[in-house]
Amino acid sequence: MIPIATRPPLPALLALLGALLPEAQVLLALEDQRLEPTVEYSKDSLWATAWVKVTPEEKGIQHLTCAVILGNQTQWTQEKVTIYSFPAPNLTLSESEVPEGTMVSVECKAHAGAVVTLSGASAGTPAPSAQFMLNASAEDNERTFLCSAALEVAGKVLHKNKTQTLLVLYGPRLDERDCPGNWTWEEDSQQTLKCQAWGNPVPKLDCHRKVDGALLPIGDLRRVMRNMSGTYICKATSRLGVVKREVVVNVIHLQNNIVTTVIILVAVLVISSIVGIAAYLYNRQRKIREYKLQKAQAAAAMKLNTPP
Question: What are the residue boundaries of the Immunoglobulin domain, all occurrences included (predicted)?
């Protein structure tokens, strides 16, 4: 009888494989360029990595071959590798800091093969470049432009972006929305005096009372006092100009409110009394007239009924 060889159990096979793996030879090649891999081993597998430097002429589909040689056995596999070049797009402003009213050119360009979209530009056929002209205004200050490039590689669309910020210089501004012209508050209430000036560079703002030059505290939470009443001139100043705005502060006094309320109540009572007296006198006179008329009618009827 021929003896039958028994197969080692699975744990023993794995242990044997783990012992033999470090003896395996790993080969990596990109087309005909042999690479120098770094190999990492685990219990039952290995991992090989390698760096490769390619030139622009090698762009396109290449074949990567991986072979493992252990004893007299060789296993290999091959995968396609797509080599591409996709730098970030170029976004340029003719000037990055301009006075208000200046025409600015915004241009976005991508690498060959990619298409771009540019924020602020009108939509059109996808192209490797886009541009438009902008008449810079105060609203464009610190405006950020986005240039986005897209490139399709091996069925996937890749994106790269570039941004630029425009600074617009403009003189001071004070308007009703940010610096109201009339403030009315109750005495002893807590209020924040808000008056915001706009401009680039940022203007200096101060508010002084017309009659005595007293300073109005701006931007702080303060207790409203009676002596804050008055008309103030708020002035915003920068190297690009000066702008002024008149602001009126009214402080309502509690004592004055009570006096005003009492006066109104007294006036209402007086008017009500006058109206009541007038109505009484009118009704009295009307009744007297009606009584006299009835007497006259009765006397006339008696004369008609008396025989001659």
Answer: 93-169, 180-252
The verdict on 155 and 207 lying in the same domain is no
Q: 72-76, 148-152, 275-279: which range is least confident on average?
A: 275-279
Higher pLDDT, 229 or 76: 229
The total number of structural domains in the chain stands at 3
**Domain of residue 213, CATH code:** 2.60.40.10
In a domain, residue 295? The reply is no
Q: Is residue 274 part of a domain?
A: no
Q: Residue 75 corresponds to which amino acid? A: Q
Within a domain: 42: yes
Return the beta strands (E) in the chain as ranges: 25-30, 33-35, 38-41, 46-49, 60-70, 73-83, 90-93, 97-99, 103-109, 115-118, 129-135, 143-153, 156-173, 182-186, 190-192, 198-200, 204-209, 221-223, 230-238, 241-252
pLDDT in tens, 2-45: 444 444 443 443 444 445 556 778 888 888 888 888 888 776 67
Note down the domain range covering 37: 20-83
- Name the domain boundary from 43, 60, 83: 83
113 lies in some domain: yes
Q: How far is CA 5 from the centre of its chain?
A: 78
Q: Please, is 51 exposed, middle or buried when counting C-beta atoms within 10 Å of its C-beta (0-12, 13-18, 19+)?
A: exposed
**Residue 158 shares a structural domain with residue 129:** yes
Half-sphere exposure of 273 (CA within 13 A, CB side): 6
pTM for this prediction: 0.62
pLDDT tens-digit readout, 220-236: 888 888 888 999 999 99
Q: Which residues contact 125 (CB under 8 A, 6 or more apart)?
A: none
260 pLDDT band, cuts 50/70/90, is low
Of the given ranges (49-53, 66-70, 258-262), which has the lowest mean pLDDT?
258-262
